[in-house]
Amino acid sequence: MLDIQNQKDDRNINIDKVGVKDIRYPITVRDKEIKTQQTVALINMYVNLPKDYKGTHMSRLIEILNEYNRSISIQNVSDILSTMKKRLNAESAHIEISFPYFVMKSSPVTHSQGLMEYQCTFKGNLNKDKDLIIMINVPIT
């Protein structure tokens, strides 16, 4: 079968980001104490498309995600980015993983226990340099 994506493109146009967006995906998040929590993430994965190529194999992005057995930590985000770059012959890779993370908290007045939701995001970029960002939205009560 002819591989259209890897054929030469005569238009001579670089595209900064091609990929998949808003993929709902079950993950296991590991924290620094090696505790885990099951949650559902919203994931965006992109690579650049050099001017020489007509397209990219976007299904490979999901294949890469599947290889990590749903285990996500800030440490393996870097590995995922490297794999994306290599497997898709890209010069840059970008990933965003957003998910709710729940922590048991005590109320300030009654001291009763309850789960507090924190919205977390891991963002990573890999080109010549690597940038990893952890964002946590902390509700104030």
> What proportion of the residues form beta strands (DSSP E)?
over 45%
Q: What is the number of independent domains?
A: 1
Please list the strands of the largest sheet in the order they lie side by side.
Answer: 3-1-2-4-5-6
Query: Largest sheet at a glance?
Result: 6 strands, mixed
In terms of structural class, how would the helical and strand content be classed?
Answer: alpha+beta
- Counting DSSP E segments of at least 2 residues, the number of strands comes to 6
Classified by CATH, the class is Alpha Beta
What is the mean predicted local confidence, pLDDT? 87
Instruction: Based on Cα principal axes, name the global outline.
Output: elongated
Please trace the helix and strand order, writing H or E for each element: EEHEHEEE
CATH architecture: Roll
Number of helices: 2
Low-confidence stretches: none
Structure, described:
InterPro entries: GTP_cyclohydrolase_FolE2/MptA (IPR003801). This is GTP cyclohydrolase I FolE2. Keywords: Hydrolase. It holds the Pfam family GCHY-1. This protein is α+β, with helices and mostly antiparallel strands. It is 16% helix and 48% strand. It contains two helices and six strands, in the order E-E-H-E-H-E-E-E. Helix 1 (59-67) runs antiparallel to helix 2. The protein is elongated, with a radius of gyration of 18 Å. The N and C termini lie far apart (59 Å).
